[in-house]
Amino acid sequence: MPATIRDVAKRLNVSITTVSRALDGYPDVAETTRQRVLQTAHELGYLPNRAARQLRHKRTDTIGYILPSGTSRFSDPFFAEFISGVADEAAQHNYDLLVSSAPAAGDAEQQVYHRWVCERRVDGFVLNRVRQTDWRIRYLADEHIPFTSLERSIDSLDYPSIHVENINSISNLVNHLVSQGFRRIAFIGGPDNLTIQYDRFVGYCQALARHGLPYAPSLVIQADLTSLGGYRAARQLLSLAEPPSALICINDETAFGVLHAAHEAHLSVGKNLAVAGFDGVQDSLYSQPPLTTVDQPICEIAHQLVRMLLAEISGEPLPERQLVIQPVLRFRQSSIKGD
After folding, report:
1. Which fold is adopted by the domain 5-57?
2. Is the peptide bond before 289 cis (omega within 30 degrees of 0)?
3. Residues with Cβ < 8 Å from 100, sequence gap 6 or more?
């Protein structure tokens, strides 16, 4: 027969109320008592009734993540690593993760957020792929729903977020390509409304100007952050009368498609054509050849976003509400000319 809260109280010779408040983390319970309760509950195999606890605290002990995509992006290694990090950190705090997907910025996305908020399905949200003007941020702020985000919109709202240094990272990537002798450098981007598109494109343009390289509109293509989009964009660029000698991709998934197109064209990647991405997903180590990329710590960012979100949910002050991450450039064979 499973242990009950009454068994824990009896073992410790304290009241059931004391055990309950200790398990719920109330500050009026001495830390020594709390630890004794936790230890005894563990020894007896007692697990609190979660439904009752949620009812008392008016919380779901669940955080939400709605993948902003119109396609099956769960196969994208960035999202796989990001969701894994969110779920792992949530579990460490006895929170569940509720995941869904919806086409970005469409009616279906708004319906999912409205439903989850109105039905109180979650205590807060983790956002990413933030847009320059993002209705999700304004909506959640207006509804007083806690949230954190990877990247920020241009809205002048105060909310916890992590920003990856995109502009300088792409500029340094261009510096590297120029140092390797690649001077006709193309950029395959993503949807114009994304913050990462704006920042990374700015970094690309600034670096071209710094090196005295002309900006050529024909070398800039908008794709959709998928490997198929990268493949199609690369085929278009490589068919130009003056094709590029290097392609910078907004993310690694786009770059994987570019590598496929380059192999089809019988180009020696790293020698005849340089390819670089952004994200630093694990698969970038095992592409052929290994992909030069801007490596952002995806899992650690996800862990930190959850910690920030749980502090918001609990009303705890954050020492820093806006964190900046400096990613690391990984120079690999896809952009390094051999002898």
Report:
1. 434 Repressor (Amino-terminal Domain) (1.10.260)
2. yes
3. 64, 65, 66, 67, 112
Q: Identical fold at 5-57 and 166-296+329-335?
A: no
What beta strand segments (E) does 151-225 contain? 161-164, 185-189, 220-222
CA distances (Å), 293 to each of 14, 250, 334, in order? 58, 10, 9
* Separation between Cα atoms, residue 193 and residue 153, nearest integer Å: 10
Per residue of the chain (339 residues), what is the pLDDT tens digit?
677 888 888 888 888 888 778 877 677 888 888 888 888 888 887 776 555 555 455 678 999 999 987 555 556 889 999 999 999 999 998 899 999 988 887 899 999 999 999 989 999 999 999 999 999 999 999 999 999 999 999 988 999 999 999 999 999 999 999 999 999 999 999 999 999 999 999 999 999 999 999 999 999 999 999 999 999 999 999 999 999 999 999 999 999 999 999 999 999 999 999 999 999 999 999 999 999 999 999 999 999 999 999 999 999 999 999 999 999 999 999 999 865
Would you list the domain boundaries of the chain?
5-57, 62-164+298-326, 166-296+329-335
Are the C-beta atoms of 82 and 128 separated by less than 8 Å? yes
For domain 62-164+298-326, which architecture applies? 3-Layer(aba) Sandwich (3.40)
Angle between helices 195-210 and 166-179 (to 10 degrees): 40
Q: Measure the CA–CA gap between 38 and 146, rounded to whole angstroms.
A: 29
3-class state of residue 62 by DSSP: strand
Q: Which of 240, 277, 232, 274 is nearest to 256 (CA)?
A: 277
How many Cβ atoms sit within 10 Å of the Cβ of residue 320?
A: 9
